[in-house]
Design a protein that fits this description.
The chain is built from ten helices and 26 strands. Strand 11, helix 3 and strand 12 form a beta-alpha-beta unit. Helix 1 runs parallel beside helix 6. It is about 25% helix and about 30% strand. The chain is globular. The chain is of the alpha/beta class and about 450 residues long.
Length: about 450
């Protein structure tokens, strides 16, 4: 039986990152990655296949990232924790010293009658499946997207680029409401509407109708929507089938239970990415966050801790960003609504200005920033932004400040660099202004 010092099951964000860090941090030169897919999709790029990129082949995660790691294209079907070995569907037996499970997730599929009809799709990380969705869209005129979260909104925007008639059906009162406060949701919906997307919120799909192929979607209100293609984009569920077979303990959100170091309930087995249970940075309670950025973060921690505990995972902050037309939206940490629901006594600071200076600079856009602080400690616990492409990095800065426990005073007195073509003015820098406005100086 072949043996490896480190075996990784799964080849997406967590699997690739674990292999890179295992080699770089520990000098392991005998690493094996087992994955089912011939080609791996860039997870966050999937919606853009159908508009901006134009092809699934342009959304491939390159295998060159794995370096000298041995890659086995096969499905791991069983683990023997006592023998420290894995068996694949192809009959290979592979021993391991350390094992990292990065088996990812499967699309959540609600029990809607008619979901088995042709041209009803979920968001799978499978190139052949996504190519079949491409072909279906080539002959479609009308698309209904079930789910108004980030993925659903991105699919809607990209399908509009193809000239299709697009409707989003969202159960909650607004799109993006799980991750953004209402004012940002409304701005996103206004931009989608301006681009021609029809939005139906506070309603749900009760049935998908058709003979062999979808023709209509029926809502709970009885309204029927024409649909040549339906895309179900309501999230994912952790893929823990292999972990269950091996007897690994599961968490409250059905992910593989892990400790602060990424270790599972079975010695020498770690888990990272969508398959692993997530815990809130703010409350320590299990949360349902599933993001490629979180997967890579967890994989780095698990790989660093392979031989001894070195770095703790302090929990998922949750950092999101997207772009609708020319307007970007981002959020990190707790929204105002979520913070209040979690029992925090909060203070909110807001600021808006153009993202270049002077405002007459080419490409200048209004950048709005909202920061949420814990009143007692003055620490930042959440932030949102909308505006130009700088929003993606603005919310990364917000997440960094949250993770390091920065207070309103510390953010308001940050030392920054500015440039007319790249940033807001130093006297109207939104992050700093929002923090300064949150508390009078006597409260610092």
């Amino acid at each position: 039986m072949k043996r490896s010092d480190l075996v990784i099951v799964g080849g997406s964000a967590a699997g690739v990152e674990a292999a890179i860090i295992g080699s770089r941090q520990h000098g392991i030169d005998n690493i094996t990655v087992i994955r089912r897919e011939q080609k791996v999709m860039v997870p966050c790029g999937i919606p853009y296949i159908f508009g901006t990129l134009g092809s699934a082949e342009k959304n491939i995660l390159s295998d060159t990232l794995l370096g000298d790691t041995e890659l086995i294209i096969d499905e791991a079907v069983s683990i023997d924790p006592k023998a420290q070995s894995i068996v694949t569907a192809g009959g290979k037996a592979i021993g391991y010293e350390k094992l990292i499970l990065a088996t990812g997730s499967q699309p959540a599929a609600p029990p809607i009658p008619g979901r088995e009809l042709d041209n009803v799709f979920t968001v799978r990380k499978d190139i052949e499946y996504l190519q079949s969705l491409e072909r279906a869209l080539d002959y479609a005129e009308t698309v209904v997207i079930i789910g108004g979260g980030f993925i659903g909104v991105e699919f809607a925007d990209e399908c509009k680029r193809r000239g299709l008639n697009v409707t989003i059906v969202e159960l909650l009162p607004h799109c993006l409401l799980l991750n953004c406060d209402e004012e940002f949701c409304i701005r996103a919906e206004e931009e989608l509407t301006k681009r021609g997307v029809k939005i139906i919120c506070g309603n749900k799909v009760s049935a998908i109708l058709g003979d062999h192929r979808v023709k209509e979607v029926e809502l709970a209100t009885g309204e029927r929507l024409k649909a040549d293609v339906v895309i179900i984009a309501i999230g994912v569920a952790p893929d823990t089938r292999l972990a269950q077979q091996a007897g690994l303990e599961a968490g409250d959100f059905k992910g593989i239970k892990v400790d602060l170091y990424g270790r599972t309930s079975v010695p020498n087995i770690f888990a990272a990415g969508d398959c692993a249970e997530k815990y809130s940075f703010f409350t320590g309670k299990p949360v349902g966050l599933r993001l490629a950025s979180i997967a890579a973060h967890e994989a780095r921690i698990a790989a660093i801790n392979l031989f001894e505990p070195r770095v703790e995972n302090r929990g998922a902050i949750g950092v999101f960003s997207t772009k609708i037309g020319d307007i970007a939206f981002g959020a990190a940490g707790l929204t105002q609504r979520a913070a209040m629901e979690a029992g925090f006594d909060i203070v909110v600071g807001r600021a808006g200005a153009v993202d270049k200076h002077p405002g007459s600079m080419p490409g200048a856009q209004q950048l709005q920033v909202k920061l949420v602080f814990d009143r007692m400690s003055r620490r930042l616990i959440g932030g949102e932004a909308s505006g130009g492409v700088s929003v993606g990095e603005v919310v990364n800065i917000v997440a960094t400040a949250i993770g390091n426990g920065m207070t309103a005073y510390q953010i308001a007195t940050l030392q920054i660099g500015t440039h007319p073509a790249l940033t807001a003015s130093p006297i109207a820098y939104q992050l700093i202004d929002a923090a300064e406005r949150a508390f009078p100086s006597r409260d610092w």
